[in-house]
Amino acid sequence: MFQKILVPLDGSELSEKALEYARHLGKEANSIVLLRARSTSAFASVGYNIPDEVFAAELETCTQYLQHIEAKLVAEGYQVILELPSGEPAEAILQVAEKDKVDLIVISSHGREGMTRFLVGSVAERVARHAPCPVMIVGRGASA
Question: H helices of 26-113, where?
């Protein structure tokens, strides 16, 4: 049913819960796209210049993280595509979903409420509202 499933990850155990669902739904899929957005907007908005070495180190850390998960998925028989875009997470997810022509996005929600949600926002909610494909949001208490 789904040929290509996008799973955005942020390095947290909660975000990795989405992988459990992608595994179940992706048995017939051609590939799973793993995405780790690297946000620089918080620093740029306050005019703080980050040295190139810091960005390079972050890219290396994110790459190793995704490659570790990729190795597990490949061993299980999945084809995996890695994406490491820079920018605001929701926008990066939406751009990759469009570019890679994914059929489904499986994303975890941190379940923020109240003032924290107002200040930080909900990446999952923004993705669900603007995605070019169906979106499955995996909540904090979910288990596959």
Answer: 41-45, 52-75, 89-99
The neighbouring-strand residues paired with 81 are: 33
Find the domain containing 91 and state its range.
Answer: 4-138
Residue where the block lists tokens 């955005």 = 8
How far is it, in rounded angstroms, from Cα 104 to Cα 24? 13
pTM: 0.85
Residue 143 lies in a domain: no
Number of separate domains in the chain = 1
Domain assignment of residue 144, yes or no: no
Burial of 133 (0-12, 13-18, 19+ CB in 10 A): middle
Pairing mode, if any, of strands 4-8 and 31-35? parallel
Pairwise CA distance, residues 109 & 52, whole Å: 31
Tokens of 89: 């997470």
For the domain that residue 17 is a member of, what is the CATH number?
3.40.50.620
Whole-number mean pLDDT of the chain?
84
**pLDDT given at position 118:** 43
d(CA 96, CA 65): 18
